[in-house]
Amino acid sequence: xxxxxxxxxxxxxxxxAPFFLYPVFLAxxxxxxxxxxxxxxxxxxxxxxxxxxxAFLGTGGYITGWLMMNSGMTPELAILLGTVSAGALGxxxxxxxxxxxxxxxxxxxxxLSQLVFFIYLQAPFTGGEDGMQGVPRGNLFGMIDLSDNIxxxxxVLAVFLFGFWLIHRTIHSPFGQVLKAIxxxxxxxxxxxxxxxxxxxxxxxxxxxxAGLAGSTKTLVFQxxxxxxVHWHMSxxxxxxxxxxxxxxxxxxxVGAGVIVTMQNYLSGGELGxxxxxxxxxxxxxxxxxxxxxxxxxFQKVWKRNFG
Amino acid sequence: MKMMKKTxxxxxxxxxxxxxxxxNVSDDKVKIGVLAxxxxxxxxxxxxxxxxxxxxxxxxxxxxxxxxxxEVISADDQLKPDVGSAIVRKWIENEQVxxxxxxxxxxxTGAATKVTTDAKKIALISTSASNAFTTKACSPYxxxxxxxxxxxxxxxxxxxxxxxxxxxxxxxxxxxxxxALEGVATKVINENGGEVVGAARAPLGxxxxxxxxxxxxxxxxDxxxxxxAGNDTVNSLKAASEFGLTQMMDVAGLLVFTPxxxxxxxxxxxxxxxxxxxxxxxxxxxxxxxxxxxxxxxxIPAMGHxxxxxxxxxxxxxxxxxxxxxxxxxxxxxxEMKPDDFFSRNATLRADGRMVHDMYYVEIKKPDxxxxxxxxxxxxSTIPGDQAYAPMLPECNFK
Amino acid sequence: MATxxxxxxFGLFGQLLVGLINGSFYALLSLGxxxxxxxxxxxxxxxxxxxxxxxxxxxxxxxxxxINYWASLVLVPLAVGLVGVLMERFLIRPxxxxxxxxxxxxxxxxxxxxxxxxxxxxxxxxxxxxxxxxLRGGTKLPFMYLPDYRAWIICASVVVCGLTWWMxxxxxxxxxxxxGTENPQLMQAFGINVPLIVTLTxxxxxxxAGLAGVLAAPIxxxxxxxxxxxxxVVFAIVVIGGMGSxxxxxxxxxxxxxxxxxxxxxxxxxxxxxxxxxxxIVLLLxxxxxxGKEA
Lengths: 308, 399, 295
Fold this sequence. Notes:
The structure holds three protein chains of three kinds. By secondary structure, chain A is mainly α. In chain A, 73% of the residues lie in helices and 3% in strands. Chain A has 13 helices and four strands. In chain A, the strands form two sheets. In chain A, strands 1-4 form a two-stranded antiparallel sheet. A two-stranded antiparallel sheet of chain A has the order 2-3. The longest helix of chain A has 27 residues, at 196-222. Chain A is globular and about 50 Å long. Chain B is α/β, with parallel strands linked by helices. In chain B, 45% of the residues lie in helices and 19% in strands. In chain B, helix 5 links the parallel strand 4 (99-102) and strand 5 (122-125). The chains are: A mainly alpha, B alpha/beta, C mainly alpha.
């Protein structure tokens, strides 16, 4: 009940926000929030740290961008195909990596995403370092003109809400319960007869597809897909967002993405642009040393102590 | 007396009103955003220096145009197209920027000019090299000032092929600029009876060029052409000398900016010939401006810096002449007026946005020829604009 | 031009040499990672930043204190090792009992900070450090011209890696170390100061990265991101080699350098990806890595 009220307030804020803030900034924030939520599905609910989620963000972006430029598709179809491609890549990755745990899993996903990075760097269709420039936003369902920033924003909001709802459903489904059981005690889940690796693999694929959805949408917002989205720095950024917001909480990644994207927005381009990486590294260190539950996690603790 | 006061008042009200009507300046100021590389491979050739040069132009113009203040803001594109394009989008949509200047990496400029063109804002391109902005990606709002790859190839490659250096190998920066330069230079080589025996593509910002140098070494070429810029040129020349390539073959730096020439070993780089759009020590006019720039910036200007000053000045003059900061009116004036200052010699701004002016074929001085650290180039010949640049494409004639 | 079966030997040997040089750096870095992992079971994501720190330290020592290359070769690894010791003591030990993923994230954050600080102070375009006088020339081999400094890197790296291997596998100190890895409680009971061993080992592993940094300074330009891109390749090498053995880390490092060099000659387009492709193949055939024990 309390939680529902929070959601209603947040939704109202999201609906009126573009009249007060720059809509492209808000749309970017929502794309990263979705990306972080998708990532959190793995880290927070399966307990596996993927250090290669940028590969899915970038794949979604490139496929959608290419389709928008070359196929004359409507945006919703291009996004759908971008998402499916990222999911397919995730399925392949998952097969290679879910057998490994902990640090190994992080390193394998990182190395695999670097493989994808170099392929995109050299593949002619991505434009290499130049990026894929001038992607048209198109008309949603052939009718709504997305080149208008306000329209674009509401479309991104709808995409985000869909992704968020899907993750919410996944976590609270019987499937999600098994995932949590694996996270808490894997040997026990195995002894109960669950094929643990299959569960992890499906979760990884869903997570990859949603990261791809975020990347596809982001490409439309900025009309550009570039190597930044596939670079391992991006994989690190999404870890940071999730960590800051609160690993394993449903709203944590959204809050974390909000904090980090806002920070980047104000720091980059300004006098303090140089400090961005120092500050991000510092937040990382502080979060790990003293603040492991993240903003939402700490908030929940305080709430429980005083009102629970 | 009272009567006179009234008349005066009325007159001044009328004056204010008429100047307001005339000075049709959006949101009461003219704002120029300078996009540059503040800390990367190209920081020396168009980083803070491009901002300083732009500010100098604004100050020399008087700080105001049509009675409204001129503001310069700047940002670091980190050489990333996505970062550059997002900054320009924010500038135009959220911060009322009227024109975007600076611009170095052709990849970033490609992305940024897509945004400026969509928003009908003027892009003043100082240091980017690709010829795409006035050819296949031409736009009525692009102004490409200092030089481009065609001028480099015509200036540097052609005389070498004509002098009998027939087999060429390229070490190319692997993005828009390098590809464009390699493509244009290859055309020049083939047209003059030479051939290209191979090419190695190195990512922007490569620090170890040894494997590319070895590829070049085993290619059997007469000339190894460095189709890169900034520190990439410095580092590739360093590796070439380390592996003894400079003793076996000619190395041609196709794009050498003065700060990079200063960073090269004069024993290796001395005698190398290249093409430039500006050199600080040409005559009294260039020396006068360069001295002022040096006092502010600490080092001699590279061609992009001088270009940034010159194009900003021309833009502001056009705003004044047009009586508005409306892009269509300003760009029309810019193309009508002849650019003429210490930088732009025998110059015209063509309808496609290409600023055609005299270019210089220069030789990097050997150690014993140098007076001091700033004495880098000697001018071999002046290349008239129409011989340096390609003719305008009919589809890019935005009259 | 010397050719054999249509292969241009000049080009081939040159690329093999460059591969071997890269392999020398891979070996030094993956060796450091393997030593740290062996004892602490953590992956030091800051290993690349420590390599960068080593190169910057050499540059700054020369610039501001007149300390030459040869002195740097000894002093800088010690200094970087000291940074490692402090890092272990004050950052990693407080979270030693948490999930090891947290220490991975911690070292990642630390690496970002270091990189950010140097980018802020020196820009990202790179500084140059000249090759020491004594190693400036080169030797003309039948098939290629070998710069002395490059030859020196290979020798130095092989000697340092070999000594480290010998120390860990063949000496008493190494025996303590290995025993501490297997059973820390028992070692503590025998009166051996395990936390001290852990700290010093971390310092040693990090110091190796610092040494690699000094070796790299004259040939790669000294820049803040020189370590971060290299590190990902080293991670892939560690996955290929497996985490089981010190010797495995060294051999895989050198071997992957050579494979990369061969690829540069025969199919340059794949030279960036070949190590990652090898990793995928190894993961499919031998998930624990070539030298790793099945976890």
